[in-house]
Amino acid sequence: MNADVHAAWWRRLGADVPLINAPMGGVAGGKLAAAVSQAGALGTLGMGSSGSFEALTRELARYREAGGDGRFGIGLVDWGIAQDPSMLDLALDARPMLLSVSFGDFSAEAPAPEWIARANHLGIATVTQVANAAEAEQAVLNGIDAVIARGLESGGHGAPEHERDALLTSVLETVAGRVPVLAAGAISTRDDLAEVVRLGAAGGWVGTAFTACPESLTNDQSRATLLAAGEGDTHVTREFDIALGLPWPKRFPERVIRESPVNAGMGIGALTEVRTAKAVVDSFRL
Ligand SMILES: Cc1cc2nc3c(=O)[nH]c(=O)nc-3n(C[C@H](O)[C@H](O)[C@H](O)COP(=O)(O)O)c2cc1C
Question: 89: CA distance to ligand 1 center in Å?
Fold first, then answer.
């Protein structure tokens, strides 16, 4: 896909750094979203396992209190909006620039999810994370505006099927210039971002690098766990979801820091100090 299409994507989102802070339940609240967008990337509000209408209402208010100017995204989880459809209504009413719904069914037999058409109708850009090229194809056929190729290095929930760069390459081949493709998974530094852009990504979808920011919802204990963890200290498990009785499909385990429920990706070794969202965004400027 040519550079003009990528530039148009980032112009649409008003970002001058080609990076979206991934929606992270319990981490990416209104304050972080405002700070990331003010720094020149695109921030999002993440509603994960404990997302709710009330939690989204609260984080939207915090976003406005933090001086958010309307340039933000919202990220929901498919089973969350199936349980509480009012969360999707609220997200659409808030008129984000971007709506992400993760962990839905993009198999060829599945019907097109209604959130894509509803968001498109309002001019809200739509994205979803995919774990393989077939899902990317189906998401494009269903009208998605961009796909996120989520490599197995990524923190949090997802289907750990392929390493980031191999997945990115196969998704790029499959969607063949029809929509921008962003890469996710262990994008920790400017060099990592430059590498996925060199491979053909429009930019990065970055979670772990922002988890210790003072603007995040991360508590002090989790922040200490994140800063202490080194490369190789994460693994993929379903144990916490099962223990909590959460309805996560089997396909989507979560990557956590070993011996803890703290979500983080394989790039965690690069997270060694607390930096503001602005400092993190600036560290990614190409
Ligand atoms: C703490 C944390 C929470 C996450 N929560 C969500 C979520 O609620 N919804 C979602 O779509 N993805 C969630 N993710 C996954 C991200 O969207 C993304 O796939 C991942 O952060 C990318 O890899 P990285 O963490 O190596 O940058 C989460 C990731 C982390 C690290």
Answer: 22
Q: Give per-residue pLDDT as tens, 248-272.
A: 999 999 999 999 999 999 999 999 9
Is the confidence at residue 176, as pLDDT, over 90? no
The whole domain housing 244 covers: 3-283
Tell me how far the alpha carbon of residue 2 lies from the centroid of ligand 1, in angstroms. Answer: 28
CATH number at residue 255: 3.20.20.70
Mutate which of 78, 257, 263 for ligand 1? The one with the most ligand atoms within 8 Å of its CB, which is 263
Rounded to the nearest 10 degrees, the angle between the axes of helix 86-93 and helix 114-121 is: 20
Name the residue at shortest CA distance from atom 1 of ligand 1. Answer: 263
Number of H helices, E strands in the chain: 12, 11
pLDDT for position 69: 86
Number of domains in the chain: 1
Residue 183: strand, helix, or coil? strand
Q: DSSP characters for 145-179? A: SEEEEE-TT-SEES---S-HHHHHHHHHHHHTTSS
